[in-house]
TrEMBL record:
Domain of life: Bacteria
Ranges of residues in domain HTH araC/xylS-type: 161-263
Protein's UniProt name: AraC family transcriptional regulator
Record's keyword terms, sorted: DNA-binding, Transcription, Transcription regulation
PANTHER family (UniProt xref): BLL1074 PROTEIN (PTHR46796:SF15), HTH-TYPE TRANSCRIPTIONAL ACTIVATOR RHAS-RELATED (PTHR46796)
Keyword NADP: no
Keyword Transit peptide appears in the UniProt entry: no
Lineage: Bacteria, Bacillati, Actinomycetota, Actinomycetes, Pseudonocardiales
Species annotation: Pseudonocardia eucalypti
Amino acid sequence: MDWVVRRPHPALRALVERYIGYRQHGVTLDVHRGLPSRNVTLIISLADPVRMLESPALGLDARRSQAFVGGLHTGPALIAQDFEQAGVHVEISPMGVQTLLGVSAPDLAGQILDVADLPRPGLAELPERLFEASGWARRFDLLDRALLTAATSSTTRRDPPDEVNWAWRRLVSTGGTVSIGSLAEDVGWSRRHFSQRFARELGLSPKQTARVVRFGRAAALVRTRPIGGLAEVAYRCGYFDQAHLTNEWRALAGCTPSVWIAEELPFLQDDPGLAEPS
């Protein structure tokens, strides 16, 4: 396994969290579960096209794509895996989707689009350019350049309201454990108005977003194999108990944590990029 992580150009860091380059040989797990995440995900394959499988949670049919973007979602995205695979994984903040990709976060929510279908022609050229580049540093530089060009040439940039931006950052910083009522009170809106405006900007309600953020924190902690096991993960992530954690995994990952650990963790535990950024 070969994993490389880099932060984007400083001018992009409000829009993009990080780049993860990966190359794997000898993959024997046939299907990978793409777990819900607090980020919109851009994946560019540097090997064979990625094969998305049917996923009731996302309403997808089987499809092949050299590069695709997946919006915020509340269920697993099932991806067929090849014996050898390589590519780049870009984590985009929901706050930066409109600026970088030319579509809104709600338009992407629960969807997966081929990069060629986005109103950003420069992004469609990335698979070939990254494949021809020598080394991860050069590939990440090309990503910086392409995304900076998309951001600076955007005619559709529309920053979310400050109240929504603040609430988003608060949800992330608390690991999804802050109450929605207190968020609405802090920004000075009614809970109903806050929920409507938030969903209009992200495509998920504040409650759904909190669940996804908390789940992402739990998934990152599971990968560290804490001494206290799943009970410790549940406690540290704000679940009522281990049973509550397991129920959330069934709903959001399509399996229990134990099944996911047995299936996926052997292929992921050496990946430094899979811990959530602070």
